[in-house]
Structure formats: structure tokens, C-alpha cells
């Protein structure tokens, strides 16, 4: 018996890196499969491993969190690649990605890409946006020169010692960034999604790659198409600055829409909360309110 971490899943096989540094190809044992737990890349597991080619997973340790796209467990952070241009920057898309990560309980890191396409005036504008999101409580990586030594060192430091996933809409620059961090990967820029993310019926391989002293999933996460299903009244707790402010709302359970004495609205008016965050919140709130209850995908 040995303990380790699943590093790759492919066609029912799970490659486990044991704590003593052996890479063992395993399968989930029959009686284990009946328990309806599907092992995920990133899972801590106990395996029976007579040799490196035919091990069995005996137990999956409890997960800290997990994502559906990519199917990875125990993620420390998600790098949200967000283009400032091409495709155009959208706070709406960014806020929805942050929301998805807040729900999954995974720490987001906002990574602004293609900053070399900005004029000096636009750079000042985006520095302001970066500062505003930092104030909310998010780490934001914003460098004027995308792949300079300084920028790449910052990415390296970000990845060291952590399990990361990268997400962001198509064309945001995910593969380009990964290729700079780990030139050995040679991911096809502009093709990674087509090859790995979108094939519905192909066998999907998911891998955690050792990069910069950390691990990063080779399959990008969701982009803009995911929908959320939850009680609209819960939405505010996933907007960090709203959650902090709401202790000062006059009514408990204030949803920050029409209530008098709402501390969130007061902070929007004073400019302490971004108007765009509030607008995106209202739009999501209305969408959730109009949604038919979906009991299959309930809020966790
Ligand atoms: N000017 C500029 N172009 C960039 C930068 N990063 C990426 N690009 C370009 O943007 C295009 C898309 O980059 P990709 O890395 O393929 O984007 P992706 O997020 O992996 O896209 P998908 O695979 O479709 O999900 C490519 O033509 C890149 O060369 C950057 O920092 N500056
Ligand atoms: Zn309120």
C-alpha cells in the first residue's frame, strides 16, 4: 500500500505519483467503483501497487474542492486569463468567472493578458481596474510588458508549490502564457481548446503538469457559457465586497436591490464599490430570480 496523488486520468487509468516518488498506473477497483466515487486528477489516494504498471486505487481521501471543467480536485487557485483587448475586456465575463470560483471555493488570480496592445492612457485605465479588484480582495497580475523576465518571474512565483488551473475565454492567451512559463509543453496556441476541451465524445485526458515547482492542469477551465443555479438571495455572499458590507445593511437578508438602508448601495454611490460589479450583480440576480428551480444541480 502507498499514498499519493493522481496526476493523470486517461481511459479509466489513473497515473498516481506516490509520496515516495513512484509513478504507478492504476485502475479503480470494482468494489471501489460501486461506491460511486469517480477518482479525479488531483485526488489524494491510497493505492495497492505491486509494481508500476498494475496498481489499484483502494481509497480516495476527502477533497477540499473540485471542478467539473477541468475535472480536477484539490485545486489551490485558478488563474483567470483575461484579455484587455482581442477579445475585448468585459467586467461581466470576469465577474461571472469569479463567481463560479467563489461557488467552487477556489481562489481566483486575475491575470490580465495582451497588455502590450494598450496605449499609455489605456494602461492607466487598466491599472485602475487592477487596483479596484485588488481592493475587493483578489490577487491581480498586471504587467505592462507581458512576457518580460519580471512578468514571468511573477508567474513562476504564483505557481510554485500550488495546484493551479487556468481558465479564460477563447483567445485570452492561456496557451501562450503556459508556453512561456514552460516552453517544453509546446501547447498549440489557438488549438488547445479544440484538441482538449471541446471534444465531446473523445476520450478526455486530464493531466497535472509539473511546472515552476507547482502543478498545473493541462486542460483549461470553463469560459463564459456556464450557468449558475442557486437561490438568488445567496448571490451576494459570493461578491466579497458585498458580503463584507452587508453586515451594515439595515435588514438581515438584504439582497441589495430595493431595500432601504442598504450598505452595499451606499458604497456603490460613494464610489467604494465598482458600479460595474453592482450592475453585473443585478443582472445575475435577475437571471437567477427568473430561473425555474433546478433541484438536480443545487447549490452546495
Ligand atoms: N499582443 C499579444 N498577443 C497575444 C498575447 N498572448 C497571446 N496572444 C495572441 O492571442 C492569440 C490567442 O492566444 P492563445 O494563447 O492561443 O489563446 P487561448 O486562450 O489558449 O485560446 P483557446 O485555445 O482558443 O482557448 C494568439 O494569436 C496569440 O499569439 C499577448 O500577451 N500579447
Ligand atoms: Zn444591502
UniProtKB/TrEMBL annotation:
<feature type="binding site">
    <location>
        <begin position="168"/>
        <end position="176"/>
    </location>
    <ligand>
        <name>GTP</name>
    </ligand>
</feature>
<dbReference type="InterPro" id="IPR010914">
    <property type="entry name" value="RsgA_GTPase_dom"/>
</dbReference>
<dbReference type="InterPro" id="IPR031944">
    <property type="entry name" value="RsgA_N"/>
</dbReference>
<keyword id="KW-0963">Cytoplasm</keyword>
<keyword id="KW-0378">Hydrolase</keyword>
<feature type="domain" description="CP-type G">
    <location>
        <begin position="64"/>
        <end position="225"/>
    </location>
</feature>
<feature type="domain" description="EngC GTPase">
    <location>
        <begin position="73"/>
        <end position="223"/>
    </location>
</feature>
<feature type="binding site">
    <location>
        <position position="262"/>
    </location>
    <ligand>
        <name>Zn(2+)</name>
    </ligand>
</feature>
<dbReference type="InterPro" id="IPR027417">
    <property type="entry name" value="P-loop_NTPase"/>
</dbReference>
<feature type="binding site">
    <location>
        <position position="249"/>
    </location>
    <ligand>
        <name>Zn(2+)</name>
    </ligand>
</feature>
<feature type="binding site">
    <location>
        <position position="256"/>
    </location>
    <ligand>
        <name>Zn(2+)</name>
    </ligand>
</feature>
<dbReference type="Pfam" id="PF16745">
    <property type="entry name" value="RsgA_N"/>
</dbReference>
<comment type="similarity">
    <text>Belongs to the TRAFAC class YlqF/YawG GTPase family. RsgA subfamily.</text>
</comment>
<comment type="subunit">
    <text>Monomer. Associates with 30S ribosomal subunit, binds 16S rRNA.</text>
</comment>
<keyword id="KW-0862">Zinc</keyword>
<dbReference type="InterPro" id="IPR030378">
    <property type="entry name" value="G_CP_dom"/>
</dbReference>
<keyword id="KW-0694">RNA-binding</keyword>
<dbReference type="Pfam" id="PF03193">
    <property type="entry name" value="RsgA_GTPase"/>
</dbReference>
<feature type="binding site">
    <location>
        <begin position="113"/>
        <end position="116"/>
    </location>
    <ligand>
        <name>GTP</name>
    </ligand>
</feature>
<protein>
    <recommendedName>
        <fullName>Small ribosomal subunit biogenesis GTPase RsgA</fullName>
        <ecNumber>3.6.1.-</ecNumber>
    </recommendedName>
</protein>
<keyword id="KW-0699">rRNA-binding</keyword>
<dbReference type="InterPro" id="IPR012340">
    <property type="entry name" value="NA-bd_OB-fold"/>
</dbReference>
<dbReference type="InterPro" id="IPR004881">
    <property type="entry name" value="Ribosome_biogen_GTPase_RsgA"/>
</dbReference>
<keyword id="KW-0547">Nucleotide-binding</keyword>
<comment type="function">
    <text>One of several proteins that assist in the late maturation steps of the functional core of the 30S ribosomal subunit. Helps release RbfA from mature subunits. May play a role in the assembly of ribosomal proteins into the subunit. Circularly permuted GTPase that catalyzes slow GTP hydrolysis, GTPase activity is stimulated by the 30S ribosomal subunit.</text>
</comment>
<feature type="binding site">
    <location>
        <position position="254"/>
    </location>
    <ligand>
        <name>Zn(2+)</name>
    </ligand>
</feature>
<keyword id="KW-0342">GTP-binding</keyword>
<keyword id="KW-0479">Metal-binding</keyword>
<keyword id="KW-0690">Ribosome biogenesis</keyword>
